[in-house]
Amino acid sequence: MREGFNRTSPLPVWLRVTLVLFAAIALFDDLRALEPEDHAATTTVLVAAQMILSYGSLALVAWRPGVASTVLLVPLVLALFTHSYAFTLICAVIVTIATVSMLPRTLTLVYSLVLATWTITAVVVESTTDALWLMGTPLVVGVVIGVALRFFVIQHRENKTRLRSIEAAHQQLREQERLELARDLHDVVAHELTLVTMQAAGSHRQNDPAVLHETISTIENAARSGLQELRTLLHILRESPGAVSRNENSSGLTTGSLENLLDSLSASLTAAGFSVTVNTLDGFDTLPTTVRGTAARILQEASTNIIKYAPAGSACLLSLTRDANSVMVRTENELQHSRGPEYGEYPMTSGYGLHGIQERVALLNGDVTYGPQDGRWVLDVRIPFGDA
Fold it and tell me: Using an 8 Å Cβ cutoff, are 279 and 318 in contact?
C-alpha cells in the first residue's frame, strides 16, 4: 500500500512541466482576482489557503499522484466552508484522472468513495440537489476518463511485456539456430578436412608413386565429399530441407542409410591406414529422422577423432546397434602414446566435437560417456526413441 501510495508518476517530462506551469499561472491569476471586500477576513484567508492547496495538489500530480490526492482532501473540506467550489473542482477532476489511471485499485476505490462522500456532503451543505449535478458530474467524468486511461496503460504495459517475451524467445531461437548451424558446419567440413590433412601430412614420407597416387585419390574423394555436403547444407539453408536429395557417395550426414554411412566411414579410415572393425545390424531405416541424423553425426565425429588422435595403423571399432527402445553407438581406438601429431604440429583440435555430441544427444534425452578404458579411448552413446 505504501509503495503504491508513493508511486512515482509515469508522466512524460513535458506533461509534468505543463501541469506545474498551469498550476502556477492559475494560482497567481486567482489570487490576484481575489477581492478581500467580498469576504470576511477569515474567509478570505481560507479561500487563499484553499487555492494554494488546490493548485498545489495539481502540481504534485507531476511527481506523486498518491500524495496529490491526499493533499486535495484539505481544499475539498475548506470548500464546504467557503462555498467556493469552481477552482477546487477543476483541480479535483485532473487529480481524479491521474489517481484513477495510475494508482493501485485499492487506493483508487478508497479515493472514489471519499469523493462520493464529499459530493453528498456538499449537497447537504448547500441544501440543493443542483450541487449533485454541478459537482458530481465533473467528478464522475474524471473517474470515467481515468478508468479509460488506466485500461490503455495496462494494455500498453502488457503489450510491452509480451513484446519483450517475444523478443527474448526470438533471440533464443536465433541462438539455437546459430548453434545448430555451427554444429552442421563442423560436421560437414571437419571429417573431410581432417582426412585431407592427415593424408597430405603422411604423403611427405612416401616415395612410392602408386601410394602417392592412391593418397591423392583419397584426398580428391574427401574434398569432393566435403564440397558436396557443404553445397547440400547451403541448399537446405536457402530452400527447404524436404527438397534436398543427398548423394549416396557423400560420406557426410546421410540420414537415409546409416549402413552406407558406416561403409563410407570405414573406407575413409581404411584409406587413412587404420584397421577397422564394423559392428552393425539391420533395421535402422525405420528409426525417426532425428535419431538417424544424430547417430550419423556421432559416427562421423568419432571417425574424425580417430583419424586425428589414434596411432597410425592401429585398430579401431565402429559399432552401431539398436534394441526396442534405443540406438547404441560405440567407437573404440587406441590411445596415442606421445602427444602431438606424427607429422608435425597441426592445430586440428577445436574442442567442439565432443561438446556438440553431448548437445545433440541431450536434446533426445540420451546418454554420452567417453574416456580412456584399458588403454583405449571409448565413446559410448545411447539415443532413446519411441516411448523410451
Answer: yes
Same domain for 186 and 118: no
Residue 216, φ and ψ in degrees, nearest 5: -65, -40
Same-domain check for residues 184 and 275 = yes
Q: Which three cell numbers stand for residue 302?
A: 568419432
Residue 147 falls inside a structural domain: no
Please tell me the distance from the alpha carbon of residue 203 to that of residue 196, in angstroms, as a whole number.
11
Backbone angles phi, psi at 278, to 5 degrees: -110, 125
Which residue type does 337 have? H
Whether the per-residue pLDDT at 350 is higher than 90: the answer is no
Q: In whole angstroms, what is the distance from residue 383 CA to residue 71 CA?
A: 70
Strand partners of residue 113:
none
pLDDT at 221 over 90: no
The pLDDT value given to residue 364: 86
- CA 339/CA 346 separation, integer angstroms: 12
190 and 281 share a domain? Answer: yes
Distance CA 227, CA 112 (A): 75
* CB burial string 256-285: b at 16+ within 10 A, e below: bbbbbbbebbbebbebbebebeeeeeeebe
